[in-house]
Amino acid sequence: MTITQTAAWSALLDHHRALEGTHLRDLFAQDAARGERLSAEGAGLYLDYSKNRVTDETLTLLLNLARETGVEAKRDAMFAGEKINVTEGRAVLHTALRAPAGATVLVDGHDVVPDVHEVLGRMAAFADQVRAGTWLGYTGRPLKNIVNIGIGGSDLGPVMAYEALKHYAQRDLTLRFVSNVDGTDLTEKTRDLNPAETLVIVSSKTFTTQETMANARSARAWLLAALGDESAVARHFVAVSTNAEAVQQFGIDTANMFGFWDWVGGRYSMDSAIGLSLMLAVGPAGFHELLAGFHAMDEHFRTAPLESNLPALLGMLGIWYNNFFGAQSHAVLPYDQYLAYFPAYLQQLDMESNGKHITLDGRAVDYQTGPVIWGQPGTNGQHAFYQLIHQGTKLIPCDFIGFCQTLNPLPLEGGAPHHDLLMANVFAQTEALAFGKSLQQVLDEGVPEDLAPHRVFDGNRPTNTILADRLTPHTLGALIALYEHKVFVQGAVWNINSFDQWGVELGKVLAGKIVPELHAPAAPELRHDSSTNALIRRYRARR
Ligand code: F6P
């Protein structure tokens, strides 16, 4: 039986037909308390989901679907360490990375929590030395530049969180994140750094990823060109990986390796040792605060009834638009400059997890799965793409994220401070998207009849608003875990494996075959399609 054959799905289809024509204006007019009633709170985050095209009945039916598709049992199986990543035969236990010391999480009968805290302790000891300037480089100088080399989950989490928590960072350390195999990335990020004062963290779960290994080799050459001695590598390079053998082969002493485990997916790994660069920036205490925020949301997700469970609500509302309204994408719009990289981080988290069309039992789905995730910080987006969200032909559900307190209060003489201006935009946008402006209102304003249609806002465009008091490490941890678990809920309903990523393999394999064809001195015999052959020939002729 597929999910489209469940009673809950059929009920939602009928309900959608009945509700499709209802406007948010009517839903708010019918219930004066709607704005406060349709809200929930957990781990320090307040979610207002009242500006969604839902009634109480919609919510009941959506949660019925969650229950009928076994979301709660699947959640419990994940937390219990069952091997729910069936295509790779692995447990999925990023939640164990933030379990407090003393908790027990078993993988194949082994308690992994002491292992997690052992690595955290080694990371903290190392971070304390680097931050205090007592971990010295080969020439005896403290290391004040930190270059993280990694890609995907070994880059996006650290760079996003570093940018998000810059306010709390030790500012005399310079952090750079190199991910792209394009030599420009490494060149530009190291051109003003002194190798004698630089620490390189090679972050790779597998320690085989082409981009990361190429950048790591070039970074080592850059260091050795300046310091001239192979033994300098031990003072300037550390590794974060699950693959000790490959780390050793690369020439990094495993004493300088911080490990993690195969039950941590790459895109769920920023709170493992993959977060070493972040810990160096914000310190062990800040990192532990972040972990506490993650854990608070884990506990909320694990224990709160679905009716008030933030990840469940966000997940099921997403399914409502994705599967019943035909929405193709979902925008995430943080109203905080520090969260500039958050949408990019979520793109991997969500799209690599739920960009699947085969169910857990190996059949093609007959329904839509993961949406396209996109966004950028407000208010910049307002002056770029919001036009389409307001008046275009596509339905784009949006998450607005804002904070009641700013980390950078800037008063403006004779007027409201910057933060009030910023937050006024959050509230105004969701209001405009929900309620719009009718033709009558436009005409009443005296707009000529021929121009009036251009000035009408249909409204009825759904948004969630997530409000927190302040962007702290704890808040960030809770926010990331909120989206991790939202993705989980959706994957559970769609009956797909949110924890593998076979879709990235084919391109990697083909690139591996093409590299020698580009590199060969003599023109190789090409056996691709005519397009690929022609492109390779042109590249070889003109490079
Ligand atoms: O893009 C595929 C992927 O395997 C991601 O899932 C992962 O985060 C990234 O590559 C990097 O992998 P690694 O940490 O092993 O270098």
TrEMBL record:
Pfam family, one: PGI
InterPro entries to which the protein is assigned, alphabetical: G6P_Isomerase, G6P_Isomerase_C, Phosphoglucose_isomerase_CS, SIS_dom_sf, SIS_PGI_1, SIS_PGI_2
Protein's cellular compartments: Cytoplasm
UniProt pathway annotation: Carbohydrate biosynthesis; gluconeogenesis; Carbohydrate degradation; glycolysis; D-glyceraldehyde 3-phosphate and glycerone phosphate from D-glucose: step 2/4
PROSITE patterns: P_GLUCOSE_ISOMERASE_1 (PS00765), P_GLUCOSE_ISOMERASE_2 (PS00174), P_GLUCOSE_ISOMERASE_3 (PS51463)
Signal peptide region: none
Main location: cytoplasm
Active site: 352, 383, 508
Keywords: Cytoplasm, Gluconeogenesis, Glycolysis, Isomerase
NCBIfam families for the chain: PRK00179.1
Family listed: Belongs to the GPI family.
Reported function: Catalyzes the reversible isomerization of glucose-6-phosphate to fructose-6-phosphate.
Name of the protein this chain belongs to: Glucose-6-phosphate isomerase
Organism: Deinococcus actinosclerus
